[in-house]
Amino acid sequence: MRILIAVDGSAECEASLAVAARWVGVLNAHVYLLQVIDGCASTRGDGNHEPRCECAGGVEAEVLAMKKARTYLDELVSRYELPADWTRCLVGRSDNAADEIITIAQNNGIDLIAMSGRCRSWFGELAEGSVCSEVVRSTDCRVLCVPLARV
Q1: Residue by residue, what is the 3-state secondary structure of 16-45?
Q2: How far apart are CA 58 and CA 16, in angstroms?
Q3: pTM beyond 0.90, yes or no
Q4: pLDDT tens-place string over residues 61-112
Q5: Residue 9 DSSP one-character state
Q6: pLDDT over threshold 50, residue 41
């Protein structure tokens, strides 16, 4: 089994990681830990993008953001004691996190996507939407949404 765990760098979002980490050993699952950073160029959807940014901040800013994300993911592997030989850390780059999550899941044969979702009111969902609800609506893959506090 392959589990993609999408995180955004927030402590709240790590709730999905805490839940999924409990199942990794039970299911003998391979873990794909993903953080999507804002991108300004087209991506390949494999989580291993080469920086090629021509927007504000340039390539240097994007390289720094990618390194920061990679360091964060490595820290999560250690903190949640994920098996290093069964865990792959990916940094995606896109203006649409939901699309990037779905593309990476498809490209890596993912069986389950685990992520946190904010419980929004119907108006909040209409006005802002959510990455989690977009992933649920747009993929055939199973999605485990760990609810966060209502906003």
Answers
A1: HHHHHHHHHHHHCCEEEEEEEECCCCCCCC
A2: 32
A3: no
A4: 888 989 999 999 999 999 988 888 899 999 998 889 999 999 999 999 999 9
A5: S
A6: no
Residue 151 above 70 pLDDT? no
What's the token pair of residue 73? 């993911």
Which residue(s) pair with 116 in the sheet?
146
Domains of the chain by range and CATH?
Answer: 26-121+141-151 (3.40.50)
Q: At 35, list the tokens.
A: 């953080």
Q: For residue 144, count CB atoms less than 10 angstroms from its CB and return exposed for 0-12, middle for 13-18, buried for 19 or more.
A: middle
Q: What is the DSSP string of 59-121?
A: HHHHHHHHHHHHHHHHHHHHHTT--GGGEEEEEEE-S-HHHHHHHHHHHTT-SEEEEEEE---
> Amino acid identity of 130?
S
Structural tokens at position 25? 């050993």
DSSP conformation class of 49: P
